[in-house]
Amino acid sequence: MAELIVALDVASKPEVERVVDLLGDAVSFYKIGLELFSAEGPSVVATVKSRNKKVFLDLKLHDIPRTVERAVKTGASLGVDLMTIHAVGGKAMIRAAKEAARSVGANAPKILAVTVLTSLDQSDLTDIGVSRDVKAQVEVMGEFAFANGADGIVCSPREVLNMRTLLGQDALLITPGVRPAGADVGDQKRVTTPAQAVRDGSTHLVNARPILQAPAPPAAAPAITREMQALA
After folding, report:
1. Per-residue model confidence as pLDDT tens digits over 85-121
2. How many CB atoms lie within 10 A of CB 65?
3. In angstroms, rounded to a whole number, what is the distance separating the alpha carbons of residues 190 and 115?
4. For a 10 Å CB count at each end of the chain, is N or C smaller?
5. Distance in angstroms (rounded) separating the CA atoms of residues 210 and 9
6. Number of folded domains that form the chain
7. One of 60, 73, 91, 135 is an active-site residue; which one?
8. Is the pLDDT reported for residue 187 higher than 60?
9. Is residue 232's pLDDT more than 60?
10. What residues pair up with 56 in beta bridges, in sequence order?
11. Rounded CA separation 18/228 (Å)
12. Cα(143)–Cα(133) distance, rounded to whole angstroms?
């Protein structure tokens, strides 16, 4: 069954504690991104883990293989469950990340490769010199990363159905850019609904604003979970 991950798009550890305690049993998985990790460091991971929650550490690592290897080992030592790297870092970097994760044993974090950021559209790819269209770029980078040891990829939910076919049933497919029907899409340019994303093959859906900015966040999270489980 697909899992809901709530992105901790807040600025400080006290806010993290407030959100995690407020949502309680409604949410078991949280994403810590670069901004929050830069502000609070590894202690913010410990804060979330101390409440018996799973952690997706989304730092999108992209550096020389040895540096990424050490960063993954550090993340693994914190007990995180998922970590991200950029697929464009190359095969040596991807393999180094996977080997670093394996080195911690049974509790190794899963390594996810970012293909094309969901904030980018076709004009953005053209601007940075990528000649492929978005769909083709996601396919190429996703297959490349998975073939070189990544456990799955991060991609737009609009690409999930195709990537599930290409990568098979074992791949983790983590999808930001998921919004309940009628919700504000913010800075995400390639979005869909929770039910559609799960039908298409998403294993984890990342959400933030529709929950954290809802009038009643503890009720908003289960509502999205129900959408994820809907058949239509």
Report:
1. 999 999 999 999 999 999 988 889 999 999 988 788 8
2. 18
3. 13
4. C
5. 12
6. 1
7. 60
8. no
9. no
10. 31, 82
11. 25
12. 16
Question: Contact at 8 Å (CB) between 7 and 29?
Answer: no
66: left (phi over 0), alpha (psi -120 to 50) or beta: alpha
Give the count of beta carbons closer than 10 Å to the beta carbon of residue 155: 29
Mean pLDDT of 4-13: 95
125-120-200 Cα angle (round to 5): 115
Residue 60 among the catalytic residues = yes
State the average pLDDT over residues 196-206.
92
Q: Which tokens is 5 given?
A: 């991950």
SS3 readout for the chain: CCEEEEECCCCCHHHHHHHHHHHHHHCCEEEEEHHHHHHHCCHHHHHHHCCCCEEEEEEEECCCHHHHHHHHHHHHHCCCCEEEEEHHHCHHHHHHHHHHHHCCHHHCCEEEEECCCCCCCHHHHHHCCCCCCHHHHHHHHHHHHHHCCCCEEECCHHHHHHHHHHHCCCCEEEECCECCCCCCCCCCCCCECHHHHHHHCCCEEEECHHHHCCCCHHHHHHHHHHHHHCCC
The whole domain housing 46 covers 3-229
Q: What is the tens place of the pLDDT at every residue in 157-184?
A: 888 999 999 999 999 999 987 766 555 5
Length of the chain: 232
Report the alpha-carbon angle 100-104-106, nearest 5: 125
Cβ atoms 94, 145 nearer than 8 A:
yes
